[in-house]
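Quiz preparation item.
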């Protein structure tokens, strides 16, 4: 019998699939950290995680039983992949499950910034009718910069093209032929992109190359009035730079769904004019929750029943 630990909540569909698979049993171990998480992992053959749990080197120390971790989602920065690899633990992810949900939220935030939707609604709650102070901008004919042309980036580009936007993209693995097929313009560097764009969205992992990629130098280069959106990972944009850009008026708006430390209930940007922030809702759609749970469960079932490794992020 292979034992699976559910370290974060997953959909009922995912749990039902586990229940109906011979030779598999599971237990919910939600909200664990420190020694409690370490003790838990030592008693299971596999684990399913979302973004809530932090699987650190300390929590894997001395573990000789755990064989596989499935991340129900894309980013694996909450898992110490290097340590897992050293201990022979396969780490897999589900990059396709929340593509549509995250892309739709990205576009929703872009529209919310452009048309001042959140503050306009707040005035109605307060009993005021302030149409004149909420004149916004159309996104049609504006230029969107996308960093990262994976599944989500490509989907966002498609939405943008449908709205009549020009799209400039940066991704070293995206070929000119692929760009031509979907009607986007490739650039060779981030700095080349910045003076040309009205909106910027990033769809990359958080790593040494992307952490703080938008900082003071980039603030100098970006087109005045540009609006920044981040539904990928907190830390890709430098927080102090965003605050500086909003206070100086260089940036026209900021929309964040992700933060370096989560949960995040206090943030220098919260309450600032032309800022829209949400509590990591990128995958918070019923369809996406079901998709990533089922994909993560399937990854572990395949691994433990047939020895098949799919979507591995480590050797």
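Solution:
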């Amino acid at each position: 019998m292979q034992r699976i630990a559910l370290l974060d909540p997953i959909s009922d569909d995912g749990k039902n699939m586990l229940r109906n698979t011979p030779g598999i049993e599971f237990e919910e171990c939600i909200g664990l950290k420190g020694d409690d998480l370490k003790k838990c992992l030592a008693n299971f053959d596999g684990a399913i995680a979302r973004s809530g749990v932090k699987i650190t080197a300390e929590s894997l120390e001395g573990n000789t039983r755990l064989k596989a971790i499935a991340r129900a989602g894309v980013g694996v920065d909450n898992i110490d992949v290097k340590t897992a690899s050293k201990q022979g633990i396969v780490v897999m992810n589900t990059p396709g499950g929340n593509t549509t949900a995250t892309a739709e939220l990205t576009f929703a935030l872009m529209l919310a910034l452009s048309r001042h939707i959140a503050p306009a609604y707040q005035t109605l709650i307060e009993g005021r009718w302030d149409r004149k102070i909420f004149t916004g901008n159309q996104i049609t004919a504006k230029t969107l910069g996308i960093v990262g042309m994976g599944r989500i980036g490509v989907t966002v580009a498609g939405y943008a093209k449908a709205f009549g936007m020009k799209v400039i993209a940066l991704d070293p693995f995206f070929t000119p032929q692929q760009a031509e097929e979907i009607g986007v313009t490739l650039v060779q560097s981030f700095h080349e992109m910045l003076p040309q764009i009205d909106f910027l969205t990033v769809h990359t992992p958080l790593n040494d190359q992307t952490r703080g990629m938008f900082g003071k130098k980039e603030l100098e280069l970006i087109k005045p009035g540009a609006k920044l959106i981040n539904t990928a990972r907190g830390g890709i944009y430098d927080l102090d730079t965003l605050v500086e850009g909003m206070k100086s008026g260089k940036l026209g708006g900021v929309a964040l769904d992700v933060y370096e430390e989560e949960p995040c209930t206090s943030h220098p940007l919260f309450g600032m004019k032309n800022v829209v922030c949400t509590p990591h809702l990128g995958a918070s759609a019923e369809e996406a929750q079901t998709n990533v749970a089922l994909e993560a469960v399937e990854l572990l079932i395949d691994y433990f029943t047939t020895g098949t490794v799919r979507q591995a992020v480590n050797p």
